[in-house]
Each structure stands twice: as C-alpha cells, then as structure tokens.
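Reading is simple: each integer encodes one residue's backbone shape. An example follows:

___
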Amino acid sequence: MINIDLVILGAGIEEIDAALNARETEIKYEIFELNPSADELLYNFNIEGFRFDNAVHLSFSIETKVRIIFDKTPYIKHLPYALNF
C-alpha cells in the first residue's frame, strides 16, 4: 500500500500546481497521468515534417514561482507564422 495523503489525477498545469503546493506543505502526493507526457494542452505532434500544437502555448505569467519554473524549462521561441487552409 502506498502511503500518500493526496492523489492528483492528470498532469496539467493546474495539477502540477497542486503538486507544488503539496510539496511545499509536506503533503505526500502521487500524480497519475494517462498520457505519455505532462499536460496534453502543451503537447505537440508532427505530420510530414510539420509541427502541430494541441493548444496555444502561452506563458505570460508574472507570478514569481511560475516564472522560475517556466524559465528553467527548455522552450522554442519564434515569431508566429501560421497558415490556414
């Protein structure tokens, strides 16, 4: 039996925030995610060499804790060049 106080279903931004708050208050937690990577909304995929995002990737947060985490994470910065057919 796992000795945890909190079960977090999913690994989206909100769930990662819940885990961070649990860690800061020393609550034992476990995250369960169905997908192979965290946060489906931040995921992207390739078809024939073209990259598609599942959702818009924006990180305009000015909250210090959030910025520290975002700024440690590798990312690609580019000017938007979107074509719609």
Notes: The CA atoms of residues 52 and 85 lie 14 Å apart. Residues 13-24 form the longest helix (12 residues).
